[in-house]
Design brief:
Shape: globular
Radius of gyration: 13 Å
Low-confidence stretches: none
Distance between the termini: 40 Å
Number of strands: 10
Strand order of the largest sheet: 2-10-9-4-5-6
Mean pLDDT: 96
Largest sheet: 6 strands, mixed
Strand content: over 45%
Length: about 120
């Protein structure tokens, strides 16, 4: 059974920084393309960033140049470095397979960007 556990969220000021982590278990992590997604209050969940098993990255236009996705296959973990966050980045953040989520969503980690 695949388990995804997101962590690292919290309250951050606009212009600050935050790093999210997602630890995976029960899956051959290194052979899967991984993505970060987010869901803001009252909105649908959307894709944010993705990274291939070889480390090639891709970003939604809304976060390009501010967020960085990375992975550590030895630790079965994917990260999302959030620099210069904006209030509109406030959401619950999730990781899952990309481009097609297939394992079931974890509990997510709440990120609130506010001064």
């Amino acid at each position: 059974q695949v388990q995804l556990v997101e962590s690292g969220g919290g309250l951050v000021q606009p212009g600050g920084s935050l790093r999210l982590s997602c630890a995976a278990s029960g899956v051959i992590f290194s052979s899967n393309e991984m993505g970060w997604y987010r869901q803001a209050p009252g909105k649908q969940r959307v894709w944010v960033a993705a990274i291939t098993d070889g480390g090639i990255t891709n970003y939604a236009d809304s976060v390009k140049g501010r967020f960085t996705i990375s992975r550590d296959n030895a630790k079965n973990t994917v990260y999302l470095q959030m620099n210069n966050p904006k209030p509109e980045d406030t959401a619950v953040y999730y990781c899952e397979a990309y481009p097609m989520p297939k394992w079931g969503w974890g509990q997510g980690t709440q990120v609130t960007v506010s001064s």
